[in-house]
Specification:
Elements lengths: L10 E3 L5 H12 L3 H6 L7 H17 L3 E9 L26 E10 L30 H18 L4 E8 L8 H16 L3 E5 L1 H9 L3 E8 L9 E8 L6
Parallel strand pairs: 4-5
Antiparallel strand pairs: 1-2, 2-3, 3-4, 5-7, 6-7
Helix pairs in contact: 1-3
Length: 247
């Protein structure tokens, strides 16, 4: 890379061969959360559509020169599948990891600011790209998807102009509370400090707690009313990290 970057430590850049595993992490990690309940309320009926959808999403992220896709790894837990509320086949028989083998357990995605000198620096696509499966999106509520996207995009335009953004953060349930989410967020903060660029994020209550503990400031709260599909509605926070706050 032409510029120095924060040390990866136990993290690493994702590659195309990781896409299936990353999609599993996202499907299991987001399941049961408020955004998934609102956006993908039919996931239990159609988990294969959710998995295929994330496969498409991460393929696009990893092909984008403006995005950074970083993964956290840990020793494989043989009871992994029992610690996720969503049940579906995770591994083909021939590729089941052995206990103690290092596997991907979390993933984060950042969008660099449009003026960043680092665009294209984080692409790690030397491996062959896997075939992207089709998703019929039967897991999604189309109207919820539309209004969620509209409000989120409006908040991004209002608060995140000319800054980077943490667009996605998820850790598999079997490996949560092990510090992986915090390690991923801190790497992004180190990059923001190095470049002198603020960083935004939109997330639910659980995410807000982590982000605020690491120095993000709450700028706004977005709310969507409940309905017969999602009685509790949805609440998200809009936060921003300033690497050089005013004293």
């Amino acid at each position: 890379m032409p510029q120095s970057t924060p040390p990866f430590g136990a993290l690493r850049l994702a590659s195309p061969i990781d896409i299936k595993r990353i999609s599993i992490i996202a499907t299991c990690g987001f399941f049961g959360g408020p955004v998934c309940a609102y956006y993908r309320p039919f996931i239990t009926q159609y988990p294969e559509d959710t998995l295929a959808s994330y496969f498409q999403i991460f393929s696009a992220y990893m092909k984008s020169p403006r995005h950074v896709v970083l993964v956290a790894v840990d020793s494989y837990d043989a009871l992994e599948s029992t610690k996720s509320e969503l049940k579906f086949p995770v591994y083909d028989e021939e590729v089941v990891p052995v206990v103690g083998e290092q596997v991907i357990v979390g993933v984060a995605v950042w969008a660099l600011e449009e003026s960043s000198q680092r665009i294209r620096d984080f692409q790690h696509d030397h491996d062959a790209w896997p075939e992207v499966p089709h998703s019929e999106n039967r897991d999604q509520h189309q109207e919820h998807s539309r209004i969620l996207g509209a409000r989120a995009h409006a908040a991004q335009a209002r608060y995140f102009e000319a800054i980077s953004e943490l667009e996605m953060l998820v850790v598999h349930p079997a490996y949560q509370s092990h510090g992986h989410g915090g390690a991923l967020v801190r790497w992004g903060q180190d990059l923001a400090r190095m470049d002198g660029v603020k960083q935004g994020v939109i997330g639910p209550a659980k995410g807000m707690k982590l982000y605020r503990s690491l120095g993000f400031d709450l700028l706004d709260e977005l709310q969507w009313p409940g309905d017969e599909i999602t009685p509790d509605g949805l609440q998200l926070g809009v936060l921003r990290f300033d690497p050089h706050p005013m004293k």
